Amino acid sequence: HNEYMYGSGNFNQAMYIPNEKNMFASIDKGELACCLPWLDALPSECDYAMCDCFSLNAATNNYWLVNGSNSSIWWGLCSQFKTDQDKVTESQMMTTSAGPAYNWTAVIEGENKKSLLR
């Protein structure tokens, strides 16, 4: 059993999310969501924080994060996700720090949902 096989450590450091669905032509018509859990604060280049709960959980369980890993700005609604990696569900793997209502499918297929992220 490989104890590190579940989390990739890919924190999706910067994600462009368009204000209108499928409008990826210009960075001026969207916002930049960031996940930099080794920092204690959101950098000015980022419009808001959004992290992958599964990766944050795996990184914490594997002691990959030391500084900033418990910062609430990165965890957002992921605190409800802290669980044993062996018992994770598909739904939990799709959860972002914005919560289940704005999972990765909604992020990729949708548009900016700033009201859920602030």
* Percent in helix: 10-25%
Order of neighbouring strands in the sheet with most strands: 1-2-3
**Backbone structural class:** alpha+beta
Unreliable parts: none
Detailed description of the structure:
By secondary structure, the protein is of the alpha+beta class. The chain has helices at 53-61, 72-75, 90-93, 104-109, 114-117; strands at residues 14-18, 30-34, 48-49. Strands 1-2-3 form a 3-stranded mixed β-sheet, with no helix packed on it. The chain is globular, with a radius of gyration of 14 Å. The model has no long low-confidence stretch (mean pLDDT 75).
Describe this protein with a few key phrases.
alpha+beta; 118 residues; 5 helices; 3 strands; three-stranded mixed β-sheet; globular
Task: Reconstruct the topology from this structure.
Layout: E1 14-18, E2 30-34, E3 48-49, H1 53-61, H2 72-75, H3 90-93, H4 104-109, H5 114-117
Parallel strand pairs: 2-3
Antiparallel strand pairs: 1-2
Quick synopsis:
This protein is an alpha+beta fold and 118 residues long. The chain contains five helices and three strands. The protein has a three-stranded mixed sheet with strand order 1-2-3, with no helix packed on it.
